[in-house]
Amino acid sequence: MKLLLASCLALLANGVHSTEHAKRYQEHCAVCHGPDRLGITGPALLPESLARLRKPEAIKTIAEGRVATQMLPFADKLNKDEIVALADWIYTPVVPAPSWSESDIRASRVVTNAPGSLPAKLTAVFKGVDMMNLFLVVEVGDHHVTVLDGDKLEPLHRFPSRYALHGGPKFTEDGRYVFFASRDGWITKYDIWNLAVVAEIRAGINTRNVAVSPDGKVVAVANYLPHTLVLLDGELNLLKVHPVRDMTGKESSRVSAVYDATPRKSFVAALKDVPEIWEISYDPKAEDIPAGLIHDFQYKEGSFLPGYLNPRRTKLTEPLDDFFFTQNYAEVMGASRDAGKGQVVNLDVRRKIADLSLPGMPHLGSGITWEWQGKPVMASPNLKEGVISVIDMKDWRVVKTIPTLGPGFFMRSHENTPYAWTDSMMSKGKDTLQVIDKRSLEKVAEVKVSPGRTLAHIEFTRDGKYALASLWERKDDGGALVVLDAATFKEVKRIPMDKPVGKYNLFNKITRSAGTSH
Asked: How many angstroms separate the CA atoms of 32 and 179, rounded?
């Protein structure tokens, strides 16, 4: 009887503690990681997604925050025991366990405007507008997107988006359609010409980004949860779900990012947890993929997979968090945020061809390229140190390390300007952009327009005349687009907006400008 009573009291105590932890989670964590722990702007906090994060490191992250992310420190809000208890709680399973199957994906699809129902012509608001000099501005303050005229630098339209868009919008080559991905897995197809949502589908629970073929016929979605890479057609019908596992089938992985490699007619995906790159061709004529023991390649004697929409694997020595395509798309330059170094992988020979000697935590995915002294170079910001690394793309050595005010996230330029711009948004210098002369590789100016407010994410107009920067604040706190003269670095105009985290010029993105990320 005593044993039964003790057991009941223990269960009751555990239930009380569990309720306390759940309340603490809802108070401090749910806004970013979701009320159900499935992730929103932050990742899912589940045993499945935390399997490779040791609990002591999770405790440290809760207490101290995490560099180069939106994860804030909570040591000033929670005591040591509360932090440990919260860490223990996020490692307990959610019941029932979260899942998102093919049938769930199909059932989630919503068609707002059926194919062919919207006219193939511009709506009246675009009369006289250069459609390739449009900007789409993602405002996460109230989850809207603004359509901006890049010539007059005036908003034309504003529409609501899904919660917490992430990974940048992706455009079709004619500029008519754009595809968005939200952190909670929703993919939206939007008709710019008609200013209307076409269709939506939920491809996952926690999504990293979306990639789209130039003709808009194939869409790829990178997921953290579940561990899948999802392929859709241009109307957001499900084509295929690839469970992401290594060559042996034993190790499962999140997908760090997926990007379109237009000249190769393929998508390239980096895997977070296993050392592989996947290349998935959307060319129906793609060569078959050897998938086991092959007796004769010429006569296809052995095991092969169709080359269309199936992964061709490149084995690496360590995983990649993000990567950058060289301008001819023959190589990727990638880095692991944990390893703090980089590697160059040739996609044709399917192996690493060089190491990159880089300090801190390079953010290669935000790199840019230009010609310097007759040879191509690539410059990358750094998420952990106040430096820009300039890399010779012939021999892969670092030709210059340029000091900045602190760790930064974005770097941008344009073919028509001799300058590159970068931020230091993860440092005390968050309110200051730095301008680098691409000819001398020296910092030549600092731009500060609103002391104390984060200033980041440059994007240029189609002609490179103006650089648009984001005051990364809520509208009531001074959030705005700041238009800067790209030659004099002076402020030209300020357009109030609600935390405009990113702006995307159609021409620069569609033409794969060397001055912007792809």
From this structure: 23
Collapsing DSSP states into helix, strand and coil, what is residue 177?
Answer: strand
Per DSSP, what are the bridge partners of residue 115?
A: none
Where are any strands of DSSP class E within 246-285?
Answer: 255-261, 266-271, 276-281
Give the closest residue to 224 by CA, choosing from 245, 240, 204, 199: 204
Question: Which of 55, 90, 125 is at the close of a domain?
Answer: 90
| Domain annotation covers residue 446 | yes
Lowest mean pLDDT among 30-44, 188-202, 376-390, 492-506: 30-44
Q: Which domain holds residue 433?
A: 405-518
Strands 196-202 and 110-111 come out as antiparallel
Residue 467 has pLDDT above 60, yes or no: yes
Cβ pair 126, 149 in contact under 8 A:
no
- Structural domain count, the chain: 2
The model's pTM is 0.87
CB 407 within 8 A of CB 67: yes
On whether the CB atoms of residues 102 and 133 are closer than 8 A, the answer is: no
CATH number reported for the structural domain that contains residue 516 in this entry: 2.130.10.10
59-78 burial, b at 16+ Cβ within 10 Å, e below that, comes to: bbbbbeeeebeebeebeeeb
- What whole-number distance in Å separates Cα of residue 176 and Cα of residue 161? 17
Question: Which residue from 122, 123, 149 is spatially nearest to 135, judged by alpha carbons?
Answer: 149
Locate 232 and state its tokens.
């859709």
The three-class DSSP label of residue 282 is coil
Distances in Å between the Cα of 95 and the Cα atoms of 36, 38, 46, 436, 468 are 10, 12, 11, 52, 46
In this structure, which amino acid lies at residue 315?
K
* Residue ranges of E strands in 76-168: 110-111, 134-139, 144-149, 154-160
CA 92 to chain centre: 28
Identify whether 426 is part of a domain.
yes
**pLDDT of 111-140, one tens digit each?**
999 999 999 999 999 999 999 999 999 999
In three-state secondary structure terms, 254 is: coil
Distances, alpha carbon 487 to alpha carbons 109, 416, 464, 501, in Å: 47, 10, 9, 24
